[in-house]
């Protein structure tokens, strides 16, 4: 970490400990991981025992800092709810961070161990859930085809929705946690190289008709169809 970032972190910790009563503070983000960019920020996760949660965005020494304040029960609630949506945001933040305040607090150490476990988990989809999501992909593709000749902007919007949902579905179907959005395409290439290349090609600057054909190929690979197909949900 550069002296510039070290000073920012010291200032942030001083401000946090003045305004909260932390059990511990975890610093995460690209600065901590050692690969920062010019606009990189600190993610600072503050765990305290108070009954409230809070989020603060503040600059220290010119460095943006996102501060998340929660108690252990709320953190565990996030672990469980984010597992259901296959988006382990909180778990990833804590699992990849460093405990920069309160390193001897056993409760914090245990919480970070839980985070590392949750960051690798994914809920399997039922057959019905998988079919319903495939149906959603095909429906978006059909709607894009319907509007391609008359409303190109709407068609492109629908295609983008289809490809974004396709990416999320692939991770869920493979029982793999959804990566952070900045790492998602790279993660898709690691999960399925051919599909990842197809998605990367889709996002290159090409015309609407070509984007439709690329999206159609992707949906066919993942959903096995590109137009209306018969299915039925389970009675509930």
Describe this structure in words.
This protein is of the alpha+beta class and 236 residues long. It folds into two domains: 3-118, Beta Polymerase, domain 2 (2-Layer Sandwich), CATH 3.30.460; 127-223. The protein contains ten helices and five strands, in the order αβαβββααβαααααα. The chain has a five-stranded mixed beta sheet with strand order 3-4-2-1-5. β3 (54-60) and β4 form a beta hairpin. The longest helix has 22 residues, at 152-173. The chain is elongated, with a radius of gyration of 22 Å. The mean pLDDT is 93.
Give the SSE layout.
Blueprint: H1 3-19, E1 22-28, H2 30-33, E2 42-48, E3 54-60, E4 63-70, H3 72-84, H4 89-95, E5 98-101, H5 106-118, H6 127-147, H7 152-173, H8 184-191, H9 193-202, H10 208-223
Parallel strand pairs: 2-4
Antiparallel strand pairs: 1-2, 1-5, 3-4
Helix pairs in contact: 3-5, 4-5, 6-7, 6-10, 7-10, 8-9, 9-10
How many discrete domains? 2
Overall outline: elongated
Query: What is the third-level CATH name, the topology of the largest domain?
Result: Beta Polymerase, domain 2
What's the total number of strands? 5
Helix proportion range: 55-70%
Number of helices: 10
β-sheet strand percentage: 5-15%
Strand order in the sheet with the most strands: 3-4-2-1-5
Summary keywords:
236 residues; alpha+beta; Beta Polymerase, domain 2; 2 domains; 56% helix; elongated
